[in-house]
């Protein structure tokens, strides 16, 4: 696939492969952890890498990395189950990679987006034997509509079910404040009293 991404004049790349493996890290078999990281981190990273050079040369292109709102669930308390550290971390990678790559590609004509839906009405859960019939879910069509409109709006992180974009802005401002608040000096809370 990377060869196709590198050799063909792609106008859009959508990284949307999925595998769940929802379970706490201690219960996640090594082969499933490896598969999850390959599908959600390694493959999108390498496919994006393969496609981006040609898009830059042509001065146009769109890269959409489908992540999910679980990318923002890291600080949730223990009541949020099942804990899924590797799954959440892999989606967080897609968000951070998309944001950073978007900045790298500023003014090149190449757009990058992390598309972060919540629960979507697809066969994803039913294939795992999970009955989601009572859980409110967004339609796949609405997710696609939001992603495409988000590209038109220039959104690097598109969250189709989040009405108040100020919430996302606050998260990203806090991220940058923490990043900018670092110092080469040891923080006072870590110094012996």
Your description of this structure?
InterPro entries: NAD(P)-bd_dom_sf, SDR_fam. Belongs to the short-chain dehydrogenases/reductases (SDR) family. With 193 residues, the chain is of the alpha/beta class. The protein has a single domain, classed as Rossmann fold (3-Layer(aba) Sandwich). The chain is built from five helices and six strands. It has helices at residues 2-7, 30-58, 85-104, 140-153, 165-180, and strands at residues 12-15, 61-66, 110-115, 120-121, 138-139, 157-158. The strands form two sheets. Strands 1-2-3-6 form a four-stranded parallel β-sheet. Strands 4-5 form a two-stranded parallel ribbon. Helix 2 (30-58) links the parallel strand 1 and strand 2. It is globular.
CATH topology: Rossmann fold
Under the CATH scheme, which architecture would be assigned? Answer: 3-Layer(aba) Sandwich
Range of strand content: 5-15%
Query: How would you sum up the global shape?
Result: globular
Low-confidence stretches: none
Q: What number of domains?
A: 1
Intertermini distance: 57 Å
Helix content: 40-55%
What oligomeric state best describes the polypeptide chains here?
single chain
Tally of separate helices: 5
CATH structural class: Alpha Beta
Q: Could you name the CATH homologous superfamily?
A: NAD(P)-binding Rossmann-like Domain
> What is the total tally of β strands?
6
The main sheet orders its strands as 1-2-3-6
Structure class: alpha/beta
Mean pLDDT: 89
Protein name: Short-chain dehydrogenase
Family: Belongs to the short-chain dehydrogenases/reductases (SDR) family.
GO molecular function: oxidoreductase activity
Keywords: NADP, Oxidoreductase
């Amino acid at each position: 696939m990377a060869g196709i991404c590198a050799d063909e004049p792609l106008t859009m790349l959508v990284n949307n492969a999925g595998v769940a493996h929802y379970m706490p890290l201690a219960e996640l078999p090594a082969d499933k952890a490896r598969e999850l990281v390959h599908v959600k981190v390694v493959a999108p990273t390498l496919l994006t890498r393969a496609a981006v050079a040609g898009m830059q040369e042509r001065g146009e292109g769109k890269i959409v990395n489908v992540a999910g709102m679980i990318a923002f669930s890291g600080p949730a308390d223990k009541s949020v189950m099942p804990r899924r550290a590797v799954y959440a971390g892999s989606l967080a990678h897609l968000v951070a990679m998309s944001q950073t790559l978007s900045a790298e590609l500023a003014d090149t004509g190449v757009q990058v987006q992390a598309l972060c839906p919540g629960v979507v009405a697809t066969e994803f859960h039913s294939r795992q034997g999970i009955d989601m019939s009572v859980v409110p879910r967004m339609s796949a069509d609405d997710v696609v509509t939001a992603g495409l409109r988000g590209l038109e709006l220039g959104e690097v992180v598109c969250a189709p079910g989040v009405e108040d974009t100020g919430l996302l802005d606050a998260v990203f401002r806090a991220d940058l404040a923490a990043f900018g608040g670092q110092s080469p000096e040891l923080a006072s809370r870590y110094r012996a009293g």
